[in-house]
Amino acid sequence: MKRSGLPLLLLLLLTSACMNKNAKKEDSLVEPVRDVHSYSRPDRVRVKHAVLDLEVKFDKKTLEGTATLTVERPDPSAPLIVDSKDLNVNAVEISADGKNFAEAKFLKGASDPILGSPLTVDLPAGAAQVRFRYSTSPQAAALQWLEPAQTGGKKSPFLFTQSQAINARSWIPLQDSPGVRITYDALIRTPKGLLALMSAENDPAAKRTGEYRFRMSQAIPSYLMALAVGDLVFRTTGKRSGVYAEPPMLERAAREFEDTDEMIRAAEALYGPYRWDRYDILVLPPSFPFGGMENPRLTFATPTVIAGDKSLVALVAHELAHSWSGNLVTNATWSDFWLNEGFTVYLEWRIQETVYGRKRAEMERVLAADDLALEMAKLPPGDQILHIDLKGRDPDDGATQVPYVKGALFLFAMERYFGRSKFDLFLKSYFSERAFQSITTAQFQEVLNRTLLNLNPGLMTGEQVEEWLFKPGLPLDAQLPPTDVFDRVDGNAKNWINGLASLAQVDSKKLSTPEWIRFLRMVAPKLDGAKMRELDAAFHFTQTGNSEILSEWLLLAIQQKYQPADRRLEEFLCTVGRRKYLKPLYEELAKSPEGKEKAKTIYKKARPLYHPIADATIAKLLK
Ligand code: BES
Ligand code: ZN
User: Fold this and answer.
1) Nearest atom within ligand 1 for CA of residue 290
2) Which of 86, 139, 267, 602 is deepest in the core (most CB within 10 A)?
3) How far is the CA of 341 from the centre of ligand 2 (A)?
4) According to the model, what pLDDT value does residue 21 have?
């Protein structure tokens, strides 16, 4: 209490000066956690560096070559265990000096549908490197191989990876746990004329020789290993940023993402320097199963965010924010996933606030809190917990709104308790103290207690923190964002529904994307066929090029059996592979017997487009 007489800035600076030492000491008191989603034992043998030499074979849909792992051996008698899934390993070789390799025996364990198979290699005394000669399977979960017809340019094939959460093991034999960080070098061989890019240093001016060398000298977890190959071109959007895309998309992508440098500066002002040198965005073909993926130095993004008016660039704020929360300070296991996504959503709100203003950020926050409430109502209590138990389950099961939005609301609550300036300083020092480390929820709590809580007693108790982290539901102290930013659009919606105003009175030109979504959600419970037609006539929702508004509208169209949108629905499901859109639309269709038949027919047609990850979700849903 007495100490709070010192200016906080000084206190935080003083404490952060001795934090690293403290952190080491405290860490040794925390039990090392086992990652239930990896067979590896990094506590005994730990991979530090990987060298990849891979040939990209479009005809066979395989990657073929070698991965050479350099290991550290805390337990000199222990074997190396790596994860693998659907890999064909032809040979394993071992070396003590990195020059002379000798063939070694290896054991492939039984295959688990979620985890794949462990590969065990006995290590003789002195062994320091292990080389795997292998090829991937055409069904590898991380890889999507696109025919030219499935790309934007229509002329060249395309390959991209999606390693998060535990799919890296389907294209590289490695310790596939976010608690293990490695550096890497790679040589990627492609057909001539195509460009290869990785989550590493990329050279925009590289000649298209078909041989590309990469170096990633910052240690990253395996789920950030990434590769893309296609007819890709580059344009700069700022001093440190640029976009890669297929030629027909490049110009629009560069315009859409022109604020990227400003976002980097906004994030740096809050959370400390951007540590990854360049920040480029790769715009993928429409089958990319996610909105975005924060691969270091090279975010992968869906083309559905290119709306033409920068209205969906929250996604860039989000993936950029992962450069601090996630890539710099990483969840040690998938139970700690909220440390990645909850922090990132909170940072995303703050970056948006700086670049686009408070109102915009507040709107996004209200919509997110609504999404959370809707999803939470459907989740069993165990899945409403931030520190989720995922034993025996696919880590994907944990990727709900809970780690994202409940996690962000937890940070939002702390911001209110401690005040913005103290909370901002806490985050900044947390990122610098734990930079390039993977940490658990318990380790986060240790930092939180030692700094923010202890230095500012009486503002938030340890019990409150525990409730946020380990209890289902939303704590009573959750500060739900005020909805008054939507007063005008809520009024419009109510007046129209109650027959007090016409749609002509809605100043539709001035509405932003979140406002349109709020409007649709407000009128949804009172819609019927006639009202759907009236809305469509006034605002042309069926024809909108804004994917967020369109998916919201198509959901209503299914509910209301609004046939004029049928063709657009089918077209959307057959051209977009983003799981966030596919899942609710197929789910809504599957609610009625006729709908389910329709869904199956569309799915049959659309399936070749879908990434294995999205395909698995939809197949399960329509079973
Ligand atoms: N890292 C996630 C994507 C992810 C999570 C992939 C879990 C695989 C497993 C990424 O940062 C993300 O959250 N993307 C969101 C976009 C965002 C704006 C909320 C998405 O793809 O919708
Ligand atoms: Zn994210």
Assistant:
1) 21
2) 267
3) 5
4) 45
What is the spatial distance between Cα 169 and Cα 112, in angstroms, rounded to a whole number? 13
Catalytic residue among 246, 319, 433, 548: 319
DSSP per-residue letters across 454-477: HHSTTSS-HHHHHHHHHSSS--TT
Q: What is the CATH number of domain 330-470?
A: 1.10.390.10
Is residue 23 within 8 Å of 444, Cβ to Cβ?
A: no
The segments of the chain whose pLDDT lies below 70 read 1-31
Residues with a beta carbon under 5 angstroms from ion ligand 2: 341, 344
Residue 291 CA to ligand 1 centre (angstroms) = 6
Q: What is the b/e burial string over 566-586, where b = at least 16 CB atoms within 10 angstroms of the residue's CB?
A: eebbeebbbebbbbbbbeebb
Catalytic residue among 134, 212, 279, 404: 404
Q: What is the pLDDT of residue 554?
A: 98
268 is catalytic: no
CB atoms within 10 A of CB 81: 19
Strands of the sheet containing 241-245, edge to edge, are: 233-236, 241-245, 279-283, 298-301, 292-293
Q: Tell me what pLDDT residue 60 has.
A: 98
Q: Where are the domains of the chain?
A: 330-470, 527-622
- Smallest CA separation from ligand 1 atom 1, residue: 293
The residues facing 117 across adjacent strands are 84
Q: Is 319 considered catalytic here?
A: yes
pLDDT of 480 reads 87
Q: What is the pLDDT of residues 498-533, one digit of tens each?
A: 999 999 999 888 899 999 999 999 999 999 999 999
The fold of 527-622 is 1.25.40
229, 196 contact by CB (below 8 A) = yes
